[in-house]
């Protein structure tokens, strides 16, 4: 089983906890990464999360998310997971970090120290069916409109990321 890295709100390591146990309420703060990918037309790559995910299954979100492994840098985790989930490689740039907490249901939730990366990619996307139920490229103006009209189909962290990218 994979462990997540438990941290305080300044990203100081406090310990480790098995990934699924770390997402049961009350969820301890732990490290995460989120990757946002744009193509050369300015569209954003969205992933519809697999129905097998315990948190926010079949919700639309950014290209990929994960938790860094012990000894793994944020950037290495982001590149690894982008390849594993969406089958693509991209140069990535860290753009910001934030902490959020969200409860999915009585059992599952998130409480993450999230490091966000942006990259560019044009080419074939080959999502892993275990990770993604679907994907799409969407123009930013259409995405912003849809998020306003259909907030409940997007993950909570993705809505926060969009708000921060807009500013």
Automatic annotation (TrEMBL):
One of its GO terms (biological process) is isopentenyl diphosphate biosynthetic process. It is an enzyme of class 5 (isomerase). It comes from the Bacteria. Keywords: Cytoplasm, Isomerase, Isoprene biosynthesis, Magnesium, Manganese, Metal-binding. Pathway: Isoprenoid biosynthesis; dimethylallyl diphosphate biosynthesis; dimethylallyl diphosphate from isopentenyl diphosphate: step 1/1. Its EC number is 5.3.3.2. PROSITE patterns: NUDIX. Residues 28-160 form the Nudix hydrolase domain. GO terms for cellular component: cytoplasm. Pfam families: NUDIX (PF00293). One of its GO terms (molecular function) is metal ion binding. InterPro entries: Idi_bact, IsopentenylPP_isomerase_typ1, NUDIX_hydrolase-like_dom_sf, NUDIX_hydrolase_dom. HAMAP family: Idi. Belongs to the IPP isomerase type 1 family. PANTHER family: ISOPENTENYL-DIPHOSPHATE DELTA-ISOMERASE. This is Isopentenyl-diphosphate delta-isomerase. It comes from Candidatus Woesebacteria bacterium RIFCSPLOWO2_01_FULL_39_21.
């Amino acid at each position: 089983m994979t462990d997540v890295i438990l941290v305080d709100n300044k990203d100081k390591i406090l310990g480790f906890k098995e990934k699924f146990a770390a997402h049961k309420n009350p969820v301890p703060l732990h490290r995460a990464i989120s990757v946002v990918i744009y193509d050369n037309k300015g569209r954003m790559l969205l992933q519809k999360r697999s129905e097998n995910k315990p948190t926010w299954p079949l919700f639309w979100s950014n290209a990929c998310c994960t938790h860094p492994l012990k000894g793994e840098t944020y950037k290495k985790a982001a590149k690894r997971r982008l390849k594993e989930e969406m089958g693509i490689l991209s140069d990535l740039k860290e753009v910001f970090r934030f902490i959020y907490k969200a409860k999915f249901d009585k059992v599952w939730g998130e409480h993450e120290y999230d490091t966000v990366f942006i990259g560019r990619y044009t080419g074939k996307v080959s999502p892993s069916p275990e990770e993604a139920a679907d994907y799409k490229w969407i123009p930013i103006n259409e995405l912003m409109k849809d998020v306003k009209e259909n907030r409940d189909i997007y993950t909570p962290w993705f809505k926060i990321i969009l708000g921060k990218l807009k500013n």
